[in-house]
Amino acid sequence: MKYEPVIGLEIHAELATATKMFCSCRLVDTTQAAPNTTVCPVCAGMPGTLPVVNRKAVEYGIKVALALDCEVQHSSIFARKNYFYPDLPKGYQISQYEYPLATHGKLVVDTPKGEHTIHVTRVHLEEDTGKLTHIHNGKEDYSLVDLNRAGVPLLEIVSEPDMHSIEDVRGYSTGLRAIVRELGVNSGDMEKGVIRFEANVSLRPAGSSVLGTRVEIKNLNSFRAMERAILFEIERQTRLLESGKPVQQETLGWDEPNQTTYSQRSKEEAHDYRYFPEPDLPPLVVEPEWVEQIRASLPELPRAKALRFRNTFGLSPVEAGILVSEREIANYFEDVVSHLKTVTPRTAAVWLTGEIFAWMNQTNTPCDQIKITPKQFADLLEEVQSGKINQNTGKAVLSQMLETGESAARIISDRGLVQVSDTAFIANLVSQVLSEHPAELNSYKTGKLTLANWFFGQVMKAAGGKANPAVLRRELEKQLKHSLE
Questions:
Q1: Taking a C-beta distance cutoff of 8 angstroms, is the pair 159, 121 a contact?
Q2: Mean pLDDT, to the nearest integer, of 150-158?
Q3: What is the Cα–Cα distance from 11 to 458, expressed in whole angstroms?
């Protein structure tokens, strides 16, 4: 490549506390709650009100910082970030700037080229803004303001510009989302906007260490949108540089329907926000003892868990990565494994990431609402492994288990699904099917050997799907071979 992309990400994660960052208003699902129903004088920015720091938000911020191997600062300072926008009720946002909660972290991610370390510049606390709904009814245009989200605790995680490909971006963003989900500080539900990305993108000549002019792409709320926006911007900047035109430093939005970036404003620098310390909040002092207590409470993190799954259960990197992407799924898988007797953990992983994931996607059912217990799932796999039912029947039984919550044994018994392995019975079915299809048998004899699979299907159909596939295939091969003699 003539130019090398240089990419940094700013990730905003809403913290799943019970109340807002600086007041006692309850957090609600802003996609469901009626507008402006959880608002008080503090988060509405009324004169004379005083903010109070949410201790749980600080704890959650420290958890994420420690998971990213950051240095948690003993003292950090909240500042006023001044800008005027209709969804910002005070005319400023309480954030952290010069003295953030934590600094100098890193996240190791796996990419097709191997491990890649992406450094984290800072992790800081702030409050979210409100939400604007723009109305266009043909006669007039106007906007409505909902302050339910105003004051919601936000954790901003800023990376160094250490990413140079979409694979780097994907690994970092998905890895960070998995961490906040594992820690229980954020649901990771991007459709509800509880985690949002901003990408800083620039190009420089390949081999150069000098950074180019960067642009910032704001409020990307899905992995797909982020990847497409970055790729578009790389192509746009490449065209500009190759034609001898400069890249302008600016803030961009992403137009999803048209798949293009568009200019929002010329890029602000820090001094444009007129940061100064928040006079109504003292410095946030975090005692080392508290930090160590939080460190001791950290769970096994997703990447470490994926490595353990690979080494202990013989899973591939892709399988392990899928299973640890959600804490509930990883826990479910480990519970299933604890009940297995003759089935390998990898077989359980294949069924879980294949059949059960497909059913979850089709029915839009989260893992914690699956009706069958890990033991019931393990029992089904044992039934297939023992030969009591074949794999296709097992998938049908699993589907009914997921719908009803019934055990595999009950479904197999009630529907008479026990696999038939009687050699004489299967031999008779094979002979019957071959005699009923002389034309196809003649085609097989003249060289159309792929008809063997068709005959297999016909015999299995005659057996009601209950024939042991291994016994059936062996007997079919025997009789077809005999027909050629």
A1: yes
A2: 97
A3: 56
CATH pick for 423-484 out of 2.60.40.10, 3.40.50.1010, 3.10.350.10, 1.10.10.410: 1.10.10.410
Number of H helices, E strands in the chain: 16, 16
Q: Among residues 315, 395, 388, which one has the least CA distance to residue 354? A: 395
Closest CA to 249 of 239, 237, 260: 237
Find how far residue 311's CA is from the centre of its chain: 23
Q: 277-304: per-residue pLDDT in tens?
A: 999 999 999 999 999 999 999 999 999 9
User: 162 is written with which tokens?
Assistant: 């250490």
Which run of H or E residues covers position 173?
helix 166-183
pLDDT digits (tens, 9 = 90+) for 65-100: 999 999 999 999 999 999 888 899 999 999 999 999
The domain limits of the chain are 3-294, 319-415, 423-484
Residues in the chain: 485
Is the CB of residue 254 less than 8 Å from the CB of residue 238?
A: no
Backbone phi and psi for residue 353, each to the nearest 5 degrees, phi listed first: -75, -15
State the average pLDDT over residues 168-197: 93
90 — phi, psi (to 5°)?
A: -85, -15
Tell whether the model's pLDDT for residue 18 goes beyond 70.
yes
Residues 411, 412, 413, CA angle at the centre, nearest 5°? Answer: 90
Specify whether the CB–CB gap between 315 and 345 falls below 8 A: yes
Q: Which residues pair with 203 in a beta bridge?
A: 5
Q: What is the pLDDT of residue 253?
A: 93
Mean pLDDT for the chain overall: 92
Q: What is the secondary structure of 7-69 as a DSSP string?
A: EEEEEEEE---SB-SSS-PBP--TTTSPTTSS--TTTTT-TT------HHHHHHHHHHHHHTT
How far is Cα 133 from Cα 136, in angstroms, rounded to an integer? 10
Sign of the CA dihedral running 448, 453, 454, 458? positive
Q: Considering just the CA atoms, what is the radius of gyration of the chain in Å?
A: 30
Give the number of other Cβ atoms within 10 Å of residue 141's Cβ: 9
Element (H, E) at 156: strand 153-159
For the cut 70, the answer to whether the pLDDT of residue 271 exceeds it is: no
Look at strands 215-220 and 250-255 and give their pairing.
Answer: parallel
Place 418 in a pLDDT band, splitting at 50, 70 and 90. Answer: confident
Query: For position 7, what pLDDT does the model report?
Result: 97
Give the pairing type, strands 102-111 and 3-14. unpaired
Per-residue confidence (pLDDT) for residue 267, from 0 to 100: 62
CA dihedral 355, 356, 360, 365 (to 10 degrees): 160
- Of 278, 338, 331, give the one whose Cα is nearest residue 300: 331
98 closest CA partner among 77, 126, 75: 77
